[in-house]
Design goal:
The chain is an alpha/beta fold. The protein has 2 domains: 123 residues, 3-Layer(aba) Sandwich (Rossmann fold), CATH 3.40.50; 87 residues, Dna Ligase, domain 1. The chain has 7 helices and 11 strands. Helix 3 links the parallel strand 4 and strand 5.
């Protein structure tokens, strides 16, 4: 009988931060997705291989993978990722969209002509941008909160634009990275004074190499 070998990879718990501290804000969600995805495919009869950061090896006892390969501190996870892709018939990739991480890993799977069971490249490209996703919703007549790309003035976000949109929307707003994940760098403002006060020190927290969006706040 043909064995269905699948490589399931989750970036945060699978060694993607082998050269850095594992960010707790992303780890809990990432590991939970890895564990449940492995369990689902195990119930379907797949033989599962995955990668796990050596610093959290003790969590391997809670995973139903058949093969768990460690990624050691300072090791290049990508080499093991590629080896696992080549040794499997199917692949399922879970990774952040920022810095094209998910896109590039998915591209490796496609390049090796493996059966990709996670989202394809077109979906990754669309989902990696909140602005492009918003445009997609509008084009398909789906309702979505008002959203604007914030322009830059020099190397800082255009404060005049933000204040103008705040007045136009006449409600609370949220500012966040266009490619943000795990609720990172989300800033909520109810009053104009809060916006002005924030931008007095925003250079300390905002990465000017990334795009930011302004969105109407929807209570829920």
């Amino acid at each position: 009988m043909f064995r269905q070998d699948i490589f399931i990879f989750e970036f945060v718990s699978g060694g993607g931060f082998s050269h850095d501290e594992i960010p707790s804000s992303l780890f809990c969600e990432g590991y939970a997705m890895l564990r449940t995805t492995i369990e689902d495919f195990k119930n379907l009869g797949f033989h599962i291989t995955t990668l796990l950061d050596s610093r959290i090896e003790f969590l391997s006892h809670y995973m139903k993978a058949d093969v768990i390969k460690s990624v050691w501190l300072e090791e290049d996870y990508l080499k093991k990722f590629i080896d696992c892709v080549r040794d499997s018939n199917y692949c399922f990739v879970i990774a952040p969209e920022f810095s094209n991480i998910l896109y590039n890993l998915t591209k490796i799977v496609k390049k090796n002509k493996k059966n990709l069971l996670s989202i394809d490249l077109n979906g990754v490209k669309l989902g990696a941008s909140k602005l492009e996703t918003y445009k997609f919703f509008l084009a398909n007549k789906m309702s979505a909160p008002k959203l604007y790309k914030i322009p830059f003035k020099g190397r800082i976000l255009d404060l005049d634009f933000i204040l103008q949109k705040f007045d136009q929307l006449n409600c609370s707003i949220v500012i966040k990275p266009d490619d943000g994940v795990g609720s990172e760098l989300i800033f909520y403002f109810e009053k104009k004074d809060e916006i002005l006060h924030f931008f007095e020190s925003s250079n300390k927290v905002l990465d000017t190499n990334r795009k930011f969006i302004l969105q109407k706040y929807i209570e829920g």
